[in-house]
Amino acid sequence: MARTKSILTEARQIERAVTLINLGARLQVLESETDLSYERLLRLYKEVSGRSPSKGQLPFSTDWFMTWQPNIHASLFLNIHEYLNKTSELEEIDTIIKAYQLYLEQTQSQGLEPQLTITRAWRLVKFVDNGMLTMTKCTKCGGHYVTHPHEIAKHYVCGLCNPPARAGKGRQAGSLQLPSAVARQAATCE
């Protein structure tokens, strides 16, 4: 006897897909995280966003997460994700969605441009789950940051405690500014 699909389960899948589309997820993420057919997802994507989905492969390199600003943003997101994972009983994709929404709230409240897309955040969680990336505690501030699994944790210092030479010196609106760089910019404007 053929099993009938639950209308409630399908409604939850559609609601999840709509949320992901509204957050900017790529079609491959929707395919991976819902049981809806490609054709239904494509129609839903066009209906919700008003345009066709982006083409091309998903980002696959872990290197992007190691650069200065993306690492700080990825670490913020992953710390939120880990907290939600420990304190709530959500399905994995729902934890990613909630963590990403909280990440967006935090960046917006600080006047920062979000560096992570929902697709990169989803990929980051997959990298951590597969052991390609991990979290390492900074020996100076005690925060946990995204690192490669072979990073020597005993002497690890994060990018906020030891920023690269040019970090935070750009004038781009919405980017991280280090206090010393902000003071220099204010002095040059006066």
Q: How would you describe what is shown here?
A:
- A hairpin with a 6-residue loop joins strand 1 (about 135) and strand 2.
- This protein has seven helices and two strands; from the N terminus they run H-H-H-H-H-H-E-E-H.
- It is elongated and about 55 Å long.
- Helices cover about 50% and strands about 5% of the residues.
- The protein is mostly helical.
- A two-stranded antiparallel sheet has the order 1-2.
Query: What amount of the residues lies in strands?
Result: under 5%
Gyration radius from CA atoms, angstroms? 19 Å
Shape: elongated
Strand order of the largest sheet: 1-2
User: Count of helices?
Assistant: 7
Structural class: mainly alpha
Separation of termini? 79 Å
Order of helices and strands: HHHHHHEEH
Low-confidence segments: 180-190
Q: Would you report the number of β strands?
A: 2
Q: pLDDT average, as an integer?
A: 87
Multimerization state: single chain
Largest sheet: 2 strands, antiparallel
- Percent helix, as a range, is 40-55%
Subcellular location: Cytoplasm
InterPro entries: FlhC
Family: Belongs to the FlhC family.
GO biological process, one term: bacterial-type flagellum organization
Question: Keyphrases for this structure?
Answer:
190 residues, mainly alpha, two-stranded antiparallel sheet, 2 strands, 51% helix, 4% strand, disordered C terminus, transcription
